[in-house]
Design brief:
The chain is of the alpha+beta class. The protein is about 55% helix and about 15% strand. Strands 3-4-5 form a three-stranded antiparallel beta sheet, covered by helices on one side. Strand 4 and strand 5 (about 295-300) form a beta hairpin.
């Protein structure tokens, strides 16, 4: 082997060695600085987002801690920071992290509580307005007009009476006979349909019909019962309120908008004789109010349409 060839081999090995050394150095530098640089860039990015997007204090504090951690990690990796200082900072950063976590937990808990209050306020308002509709309908059926004041309506809730139909037995599934037709109508109309509830009731009261087996257990009686007991103390009503997460029913509280601590009443407006044409009149009512937390307006009824009782929430 000639001297020149040996020199070429030596140069090639030297070049390869330098290339390997450079590659190793780059690998070491990448491993050493990649994480600190990544933290630094991420922290800076979050700080910029927080400032431009008006993020909350918790977000800004987290971004600042990440940025500082990235910067200090970079200094430590470069050998310009002592280990003791990094340990001290780590302890302080951990304590700050606990504080941030507590703040975040408190903010999330407050938000959940706020949403729960809003949801309960909305449900309570709808249920109260439905109850008011029911009460006003019963009041109008007995008095011809709607209760014009909350005191009148509350008094009716506590002491008012409503019709209750006691039902026993079922309508016979047959047509009435010619003899029964004569009793019911006194004419010769065709017998081509089964008897109705009203016809069965009249026949059950007929002296001859009372002896028929079909009407032996048939009973339809209308009695007067307490509005408060029949509706608002019934098992079905109480169970429905419980399933909805609503509290106990208080007649005196219906006038108040929920979660206003009894300071704001629903606006109650009535018209006793709204003109409906052909010299006919009918009553009208509207109850409205603004909810406590969302400031949403909720109402039912209309002062221009007689006996209109639909609620604003029904169209959503």
């Amino acid at each position: 082997m000639t001297v020149s060839r040996i020199e070429k081999i030596v140069d090639l090995l030297s070049y390869k060695s330098k290339e390997i050394i450079m590659t190793n150095n780059f690998s070491v530098l990448f491993k050493k600085y990649s994480v600190p640089v990544l933290l630094l860039i991420l922290g800076l990015t979050l700080l910029i987002i927080g400032v431009t997007k008006n993020q909350g204090s918790t977000f800004m504090l987290s971004a600042l801690l990440m940025f500082i951690a990235g910067g200090l990690s970079l200094l430590y990796s470069s050998g310009k920071m002592k280990t003791m200082f990094l340990v001290i900072f780590g302890i302080l950063a951990g304590a700050a992290g606990v504080v941030v976590l507590a703040i975040s937990w408190n903010e999330v808990s407050s938000e959940i509580k706020s949403q729960n209050r809003i949801e309960l306020s909305d449900k309570t308002a709808k249920q109260n307005l439905r109850d008011i509709i029911y009460i006003q309908k019963e009041y109008q059926e007995r008095n011809g007009v709607y209760a014009g004041t909350w005191d009148e309506m509350t008094e009716f809730i506590k002491n008012g009476k409503v019709d209750y139909v006691y039902s026993e037995g079922s309508v016979p599934g047959r047509k009435y006979t010619a003899e029964e037709r004569n009793f019911l109508y006194g004419d010769k109309r065709a017998i081509d349909v089964n008897m109705t509830e009203a016809e069965a009731y009249r026949l059950s009261k007929w002296a001859d019909g009372a002896n028929y087996t079909d009407f032996k257990n048939f009973r339809r009686d209308t009695t007067q019962v307490s509005l408060l007991s029949s509706k608002f103390k019934s098992r079905s009503y109480l169970e429905a309120r419980k399933l909805s997460g609503l509290g106990k029913f208080y007649p005196d509280s219906l006038r108040f908008i929920p979660f206003t601590k009894g300071k704001r009443e629903w606006d109650l407006q009535t018209r006793d004789s709204l003109d409906v044409g052909d010299d006919q009149t009918a009553p009208a009512i509207k109850v409205s109010g603004v909810l406590a937390f969302t400031k949403e307006k909720m109402f039912f009824g209309s002062l221009t349409k007689p006996n209109e009782l639909s609620g604003s929430w029904e169209n959503k």
